[in-house]
Amino acid sequence: MGTAVRDDEISKLGYSTGYDVLHNRRANKGLAFSIEERQAYRIRGLLPPNISTPHLQVERIMENLRKMPDDLTRYLALGSLHDTNEKLFYRVAVEHTKEIMPLIYTPTVGLACQKYSLIFLKPKGLFISIFDKGHIYDILCNWPVNDAIVVTDGERILGLGDLGCNGMGIPIGKLSLYTALAGVPPEYCLPIMLDIGTNNENNLNDKYYVGLRQKRVRGKEYDEFIDEFMQAVVKRFGEQCLIQFEDFANHNAFRLLEKYHNTYCTFNDDIQGTASVAVAGILSATRVTGKKLSDNTFVFYGAGEASIGIADLLVLALEREGLSTEEARKKIFLVDSKGLIVKRIHILLIDSVDFLLDFSLDVLGACSLIGAAGQGPAFTRDILELMASINERPVIFALSNPTSKAECTACEAYEATKGQCIFASGSPFPNVEYNGKTFVPGQGNNSYIFPGVGLAIVTCAIRRVPNELFYLAAKTLSEQVTEDDLSTGLIYPPIEKIREVSRKIAVVLAEYAYEKNLAGLHPKPKNLEKFIHSQQYTVEYENALPYPWEGPTNLPSKL
Q: Domain tally for the chain?
């Protein structure tokens, strides 16, 4: 049956005792440990005698999740699973992506962030406060290795506003998707909260709040803090370490991206990831409408980082179709609660803006209506009907997250347009039955984009992240949509294919990076797809037995 490993031998394998094996989330297999493994690691008796297959383990988890009363309870259960058995957590996420993704990210993560301090049990990632200024490198040295960081200051969490330290759920959730949806090894992922205070009175008055109880730091001190953080990351982990900015407020998001994108390996998912997935949906929609991209007029509701990011990338896509920058901009209009913004796209948040109070979609001849304002229901039945009256196949994107902030529901869009609209949303909506046909709403979630971008950066050590990468990601994503997908209303691939899609995106981006001398991995792999595939995290358990190797065979029988 095998020979037990001595305590000193177990220690050499990285564990103090066999008991530690069961309490290390990266080593633990639970009931899937074989008899030989149980004896070798001296964990026999620490588990019930039955041996479970990984498939049965997943079944058990899913049955338990489905019996739980609400999504927050499911979120907590999945978090506990991640802390106990990391492989099993990701196996559940990979095999049941459509069901699990809304539980580990939007929309459930929004509620989890709001209650983060109340449900806080175990820290994940790093918390760097303004009081650590001058010592950020020392804090980063407390973390072993890293290739990908998702960082937030908690000021604009989803559509929920300033949640301060409670926003840590966003970097944690994002990096879970890096692994589940693209196979970026979890040990290379680091969520970071930059706690510079909060202006949320509910947090400041909450006795359980885990963050700093002070107003937000602004101005020069804030900028010096971010500068030190960026420099410390490069000093600690190298210039190829990805720094993904997440849920920074508009007044910081754009200027920080502009400040750092040419000198660091960084991108802002709220701006560039959202833009890429939206442009991918628009490209897919042209296959349904039969119109060239340049034959469309695009109206955005909202003038924040998401809308402007989409508009900027849309300009790039229109330029690829032959339009000049000025011609492309004339195809795009941005509207907020005060009216139509008539300043040029790139200076919207820098200069003062003029507003046109009276506005009509009919006058603009809108072909696509894109909502990313985060203000909740705004696409009324009248607006949706108007879009249907001026377009045979109107494009309606309600991209705001979480679900409560969406501009309209899928059902409202399909019913008001009599099933003629091409619809996508930021959060998931159920299928819609209308006039005898089943419509499958497309989910324009950034999760189609940022995991593949991250996979390319991590596997090929890409040093910079130009906007062209997000156009290529959008184009590649759109190309994965089949005619059968389009016939059911989908303008994105089925969510079950997202891991394969992420790899295809990573391969295209890696090819571009090598062409532009942006990749740090040399020599270039002969077959990028095979190489990237080989680097992806696998959810299969590995043999936990010590690996034997042969020794000399010509030893004398007696010494």
A: 3
